[in-house]
């Protein structure tokens, strides 16, 4: 079995090895990076379960429930004291059993706080392409091992509006092939052949920084080329990041188009342009910091010195019944 997998992976690499790549990313106006020296500290707010049981009742169809969704969050040891505490105190409390964190180190405290949902991928903590692809590969394989109907990936700088995620997925049939997300570019990725620079093919991809979802039907069809670490081989063959490689597999190899869902948001957008009256309709939010300027949602609530990412304020705006929210 191992020999067959190696042969298949080698075939993919041979087929792609002679190509070169040009990626055009138009219209991306933000290139924010979190200032590690000015790390975000979250006070020791109480972590508590949801007290209301009807937060999902506004959904139209009941064919998909929260328990049908595998939510994965890609993170690293560098952010276990800054980004993760914010998630654990807010939206994670709405999906404790459905959310898994994929990291690169062991942390007993976080394992306890997530009820054993921290997965050490044994991938490197660096932000290099190969290591990001390594984590995505482990995320995908863990979803395949579950009995879930949807695989939804997010980053550790995302806030996920869990009820809205459920209601959006209820509009799609998990037994059909669906790739849901939002692009961060204005043109598709284009792959050319050298030395003629002839366009070989192009494809769209959903940016991982906003999150994306894949139906189980489509995920199973990807199994021959993406499972068991073969996803990493694809990444290395086309030399593109994890979310772009996911788009390559789905749009080019599987011939399934990305379905645009504008309710996903990344820090490549101007978060302040999102209108508070629409927050309940959005699936994901993000934040970033460049020098001394934060790219965050404009939401009333806690003092910015206490809540610079605005995720605590956003959570209380959406779910004011949490005890730590201002009264």
TrEMBL record:
Q: Do you know which InterPro entries this protein is assigned to?
A: Fringe-like_glycosylTrfase
Q: Which GO terms describe its molecular function?
A: glycosyltransferase activity
Q: Where this protein primarily resides, as one coarse class?
A: membrane
Question: Where does the source fall among the domains of life?
Answer: Eukaryota
Q: Which GO terms describe its cellular component?
A: endomembrane system; membrane
Output the Pfam families linked to this UniProt entry: Fringe (PF02434)
Compartments annotated for it: namely: Endomembrane system; Membrane
Residues forming the Fringe-like glycosyltransferase domain are 63-310
Q: What membrane topology does the annotation report for this chain?
A: Single-pass membrane protein; Single-pass type II membrane protein
The UniProt keyword set, sorted, is: Glycosyltransferase, Membrane, Signal-anchor, Transferase, Transmembrane, Transmembrane helix
Task: Name the family the entry cites.
Answer: Belongs to the glycosyltransferase 31 family.
Protein known as: Fringe glycosyltransferase
Query: What is the originating organism of this protein?
Result: Papilio xuthus (Asian swallowtail butterfly)
What gene does this protein come from? Answer: LOC106128246
């Amino acid at each position: 079995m191992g020999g067959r997998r190696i042969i298949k992976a080698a075939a993919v690499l041979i087929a792609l090895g002679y190509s070169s790549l040009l990626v055009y990313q138009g219209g991306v106006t933000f290139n924010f990076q979190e200032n590690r020296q000015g790390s975000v500290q979250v006070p020791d707010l109480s972590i508590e379960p949801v007290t209301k049981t009807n937060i999902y009742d506004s959904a139209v169809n009941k064919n998909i429930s929260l328990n049908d969704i595998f939510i994965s969050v890609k993170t690293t040891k560098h952010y276990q004291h800054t980004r993760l505490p914010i998630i654990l105190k807010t939206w994670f409390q709405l999906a404790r059993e459905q959310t898994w964190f994929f990291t690169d180190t062991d942390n007993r405290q976080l394992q306890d706080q997530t009820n054993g949902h921290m997965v050490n991928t044994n991938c490197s903590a660096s932000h290099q392409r190969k290591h990001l692809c390594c984590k995505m590969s482990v995320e995908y394989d863990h979803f395949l091992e579950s009995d879930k109907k949807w695989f939804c990936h997010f980053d550790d700088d995302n806030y996920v509006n869990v009820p809205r995620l459920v209601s959006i997925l209820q509009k799609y049939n998990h037994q059909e092939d669906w790739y849901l997300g939002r692009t961060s570019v204005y043109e598709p990725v284009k792959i050319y052949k050298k030395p003629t620079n002839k366009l070989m093919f192009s494809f769209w991809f959903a940016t991982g920084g906003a999150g994306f979802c894949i139906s189980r039907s489509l995920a199973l069809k990807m199994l021959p080329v993406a499972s068991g670490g073969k996803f990493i081989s694809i990444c290395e063959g086309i030399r593109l990041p994890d979310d772009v490689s996911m788009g390559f597999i789905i749009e080019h190899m599987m011939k399934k188009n990305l379905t645009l869902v504008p309710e996903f948001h990344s820090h490549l957008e101007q978060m302040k342009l999102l209108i508070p009256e629409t927050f309940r309709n959005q699936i994901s939010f993000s934040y970033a910091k460049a020098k001394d300027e934060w790219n965050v949602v404009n939401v009333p609530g806690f003092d910015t010195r206490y809540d610079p990412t605005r995720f605590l304020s956003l959570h209380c705006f959406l779910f004011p019944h949490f005890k730590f929210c201002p009264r």
